[in-house]
């Protein structure tokens, strides 16, 4: 009974976090990692989880939640023929390799260092979202190797360190080289699979046996959060999508950019104060 009493606040906090993440993910058309990580960090903090494992736990749990949504999205986009399979095949080593490197780095890094990394990357993405122009172009087609391999590995590293599926990063890469945003979004679902599966394994192994983790955790993945949030985010994402349809693409980009900026500032403040 005492165990259930202790667990109830944890469950209620995660349900609330999943509701917010699902709506915002639906609004901004992303997998939700950039939203889930800061929410997890603060919820885990409210529940008394030690700071030295809190950020790693947020990152690993976020990637675990992205696995089924990425697979489901990829299968749907592939059936429509919208995925650039040639690009994905060329990244089958680069992206997972980068993600595993990120998991290894995260296991050794401090919580403060990971928050700094998250905040800096989020600020760069926010700049892109707020000031993005359709005229920005680096070329008319995607570059070949070794540049392509390095970009894939870089997307894996940055996504693994942020606990995201890489959609924003891949969309930026593909649109800068003349691909449509629709193909970018479709291909990003496959990139999410290449990131989330090795990322899940990496964060489990990286946190194996670490003290201070909450109940029902395997390494840096908390399965209560995973099982609770997957159905909630999937159910409420259409609500966010409905809100999004009432806004222009530009308003959505600016809104997400502002959101990322606020999260970055807040993370910086948790380190300074």
UniProtKB/TrEMBL annotation:
<protein>
    <recommendedName>
        <fullName>Probable membrane transporter protein</fullName>
    </recommendedName>
</protein>
<keyword id="KW-0472">Membrane</keyword>
<dbReference type="InterPro" id="IPR002781">
    <property type="entry name" value="TM_pro_TauE-like"/>
</dbReference>
<comment type="similarity">
    <text>Belongs to the 4-toluene sulfonate uptake permease (TSUP) (TC 2.A.102) family.</text>
</comment>
<feature type="transmembrane region" description="Helical">
    <location>
        <begin position="7"/>
        <end position="24"/>
    </location>
</feature>
<feature type="transmembrane region" description="Helical">
    <location>
        <begin position="151"/>
        <end position="173"/>
    </location>
</feature>
<feature type="transmembrane region" description="Helical">
    <location>
        <begin position="252"/>
        <end position="272"/>
    </location>
</feature>
<keyword id="KW-1133">Transmembrane helix</keyword>
<feature type="transmembrane region" description="Helical">
    <location>
        <begin position="87"/>
        <end position="107"/>
    </location>
</feature>
<feature type="transmembrane region" description="Helical">
    <location>
        <begin position="114"/>
        <end position="131"/>
    </location>
</feature>
<dbReference type="Pfam" id="PF01925">
    <property type="entry name" value="TauE"/>
</dbReference>
<feature type="transmembrane region" description="Helical">
    <location>
        <begin position="220"/>
        <end position="240"/>
    </location>
</feature>
<keyword id="KW-1003">Cell membrane</keyword>
<keyword id="KW-0812">Transmembrane</keyword>
<feature type="transmembrane region" description="Helical">
    <location>
        <begin position="30"/>
        <end position="50"/>
    </location>
</feature>
<feature type="transmembrane region" description="Helical">
    <location>
        <begin position="185"/>
        <end position="208"/>
    </location>
</feature>
<feature type="transmembrane region" description="Helical">
    <location>
        <begin position="57"/>
        <end position="75"/>
    </location>
</feature>
